């Protein structure tokens, strides 16, 4: 569990610098330059991500169950997850989906985390998915009060919405039918 907590703190911590202390982020950016800052940010993110994956896998071996939900919540999870991949893609393929969601990557993260909390009730699940849900909510709220930095994305187009939906649902199908079992080790029972 220690690796999971350290991983979550590192991964979400580095992603929270702008939420907590934007002037610090700006000073680090100025001190190390764009490539230096992105390098530090990437290394901390990667180390955190590896630790949270390892720690989550380790914690699943001897879970502490906090709650259980009805088995039919599985279907709610599957329906909610339909929206995650198209929203995830919409962050970099701007169109009407991105305009409607405003911050589609954060929306995808919130839906993903909430959907997984519906069907996973161990302490490790609550730490992992609850942390991501809390972070995404805090980041979305903070965006109303801070200057937005431009992100690299495709030019806006109506075709981007088609790409997001078709490709997003294709990725969803791949996860539901194969990748979730292969990568996460949990069969979705389909």
List the helices and strands and how they pair.
Blueprint: H1 2-15, H2 17-20, H3 22-60, H4 73-81, H5 84-90, H6 96-101, H7 104-119, H8 123-143, H9 158-184
Helix pairs in contact: 1-3, 1-8, 3-8, 4-7, 5-7, 5-9, 7-8
What spatial form do the alpha-carbon principal axes imply? globular
Mean pLDDT: 92
Structural class: mainly alpha
Instruction: Please report the distance between the alpha carbons of the first and last residues.
Output: 30 Å
Q: Please provide the count of β strands.
A: 0
Q: What is the radius of gyration computed over CA atoms, rounded to a whole number of angstroms?
A: 18 Å
The parts where pLDDT drops under 50 for at least 5 residues are none
Order of helices and strands: HHHHHHHHH
């Amino acid at each position: 569990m220690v690796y999971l907590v350290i991983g979550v703190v590192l991964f979400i911590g580095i992603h929270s610098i702008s939420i907590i202390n934007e002037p610090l982020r700006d000073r680090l950016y100025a001190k190390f330059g764009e490539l230096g800052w992105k390098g530090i940010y990437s290394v901390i993110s990667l180390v955190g991500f590896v630790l949270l994956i390892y720690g989550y896998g380790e914690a699943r071996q001897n879970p502490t169950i906090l709650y259980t939900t009805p088995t039919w919540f599985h279907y709610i999870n599957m329906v909610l997850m339909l929206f995650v991949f198209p929203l995830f893609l919409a962050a970099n393929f701007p169109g009407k989906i991105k305009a409607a969601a405003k911050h589609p990557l954060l929306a995808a993260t919130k839906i993903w985390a909430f959907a997984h909390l519906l069907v996973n009730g161990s302490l490790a699940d609550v730490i992992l998915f609850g942390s991501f849900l809390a972070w995404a909510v805090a980041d979305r709220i903070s965006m109303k009060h801070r200057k937005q930095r431009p992100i690299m994305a495709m030019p806006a187009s109506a075709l981007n919405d088609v790409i997001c939906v078709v490709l997003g649902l294709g990725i969803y199908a791949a996860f539901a039918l194969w990748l979730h079992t292969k990568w996460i080790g949990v069969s979705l029972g389909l």
